[in-house]
Amino acid sequence: MQRVKTGWTWAALMGLSMLASFLGMAILAGPSHASEVDMLIEKLAQKGLLTRIEAETMRGDIEMAEKASYIKHREETNPWLDGLTQKGDARLRYEAFSRESEESTSADRNRYRVRLRWGVEKQFDEEWKAGFRIATGTANDATSTNQTLTDEFGLKSIFLDQAYATWTPTKRFKNLMPSTKLVEIGAGKVNNPFAKTASTIIWDGDTNPEGIYEKIDFNLGKTDTGYTDLNLLFGQFVVDEDSNLTPGDQGMMAYGIGLTHEWAKDHKADFHVTYYDWQDYIQFAKGGNSALPNALGGNDRELEDLKIINYYASVNFLSNIPSLGTQNVKIFGDIAHNTAAQDYESLNGASYDESSRNTPRGDENMAFSIGSVIGKAKDPGTWEAGYEYYYVEANAVNGAFSESDLGVGGTNNQGHKLSFKYMIHKNIELNLTAWLVEKINPTIVDYFSSGDLDVFGDDDQLLRTQADLVYKF
Fold it and tell me: Which pLDDT score is estimated for 295?
């Protein structure tokens, strides 16, 4: 018995020695031998030469060694790859438009669309980074990266969607002011920094402004379970530049302040106030100078200017919901008011005639939305469901850059949005969305609509449904 036991001991030692030699060569050779190494470890575990715990420990050690070897090799041969990351997504969409209308001659519509986005970012050090992203879309359309499947199998266009650089000198400022939590300055065609401080009544999710922004966060208080932060956000954006100085350059200045309070894990509330100062944009769009396909976005031609104050609030918490268990819940609301809108009578010295289809909309200068989301689609098999109500008067916001899927986009719309997201795979999601929208002021002809998607009349309603399959990489 002792001889047999000794034989097995020597066999195990010889096997482990050979395994160590093989693993060393595999690690030096690169990750391509990982599957062979894994098979060998599994065979040794099956023969009892390794316990399951030893086998799993060895696998972990090998993975760490391979990663360290790869990083070292990459740094020595291709140092520019260090700090370089990439990500993107591809979306397939089916979209349908159904109308209830006595006046519109437009037929129902069905279309299939694709979207591709891919970006690269380089982190140079803890302060500096730069990147770009390309995406499908239509020239000069700021609110959509979709391409419709049509035009006899024609090629689809790809454009520069983002190109930016950021400087984050947080540590420098923290040495001067210990309460500093974040300092970030970005420039270029940037991922919209104001998207998280407003709903889509202000910004369509595809809009990437161009210019400079500054973001500063201060910690006002911290406890064992949460914190309170002061958020400052400013933007100086270029809308249009005229080389001949006629009618002049257009821009937009934004000034934001907010508070974020977290009182426990997954329990957070925030409140933001932002002032958007659009400089000469309406006069520019009235003159037909804007290259956007829907330049005024439903705003009234009698509108003089856009000076918008926006209030946004949201609260996130966990709640035990009957039949659904503990779920993440988000409730949010948004109000916008254009302080520069003037009523028709003060502008023209005449009374507003609601019965005339060609009478301007007066001072319709308010917009709001309210909604909620239940669940959190993150891991495979998880889901989330949402509802939002929109009310966007004609002159309340800049309709050229607000939610483009609300009816046919732009302003003078009210309606409901229902959404559902399900994670099929960690990188694949299914989205279902339905929009039921009608015009707020049905007596006005929508001069700047989208062709065959026009919606007119007192009882006109548009049901817009979307089914998306999104692949992330």
Answer: 80
